[in-house]
Design goal:
Elements: H1 2-24, E1 29-30, E2 35-36, E3 40-42, E4 50-52, H2 60-90, H3 98-125, H4 129-132, E5 135-136, H5 138-160
Antiparallel strand pairs: 1-2, 1-5, 2-3, 3-4
Length: 164
């Protein structure tokens, strides 16, 4: 049982790390000479000429929705780890980890919403012609991997709740 708990903790910490990297790092949409994330656009490879995505963007509300859901998913995943630690020793068998599983499901839902909005509207977020010629970056891919990890983690918490 200790091995299972250790695996779940490591899996959860990995999910948190993926969410932090996906939220903070500047590689949601990349091209030959630019990097774009949900916060700013860097127009050269050295990341010295960066422009913040501001309210002058016609789709600024969608960008804010992506920012908010990614931040919320990271916060919820961290709260889920804390609640896992508290529930491990405080609740009786059968009641354990239900709250943690719900928090992880909410985190999973937030990541899915953010990545889905970005994937459906990425070409509208960056109207400059040179930025349209790019591909999804590793932060976007990490967001989808974090979605899978948080979903699997929440399912593991639901299965683990009845174990001794």
């Amino acid at each position: 049982m200790l091995v299972v708990l250790a695996f779940i903790i490591i899996f959860h910490i990995t999910s948190i790390a993926l969410l932090f990297i996906a939220t903070i790092d500047n590689a949601w949409w990349v091209g030959q000479d630019f990097y774009v994330d949900i916060w700013k656009i860097c127009l050269n490879a050295t990341k010295t000429e960066c422009l913040e995505i501001g309210s002058n963007n016609p789709n600024f509300q969608a960008i804010q929705a992506i920012q908010a859901t990614m931040i919320l998913s990271t916060i919820l995943c961290c709260i889920g780890l804390l609640s896992f630690g508290l529930q491990l020793f405080r609740l009786k068998q059968g009641e354990r980890f239900v709250f943690t599983a719900i928090i992880q499901m909410l985190s999973c839902l937030c990541v899915m919403i953010a990545a889905a909005i970005y994937s459906s509207m990425y070409d509208k977020f960056h109207p400059a012609l040179e930025i349209k010629n790019g591909t999804f970056g590793y932060s976007f891919i990490l967001a989808w991997i974090a979605f899978a990890f948080t979903l699997i983690n929440s399912i593991m918490y639901l299965i683990l709740r009845k174990r001794k």
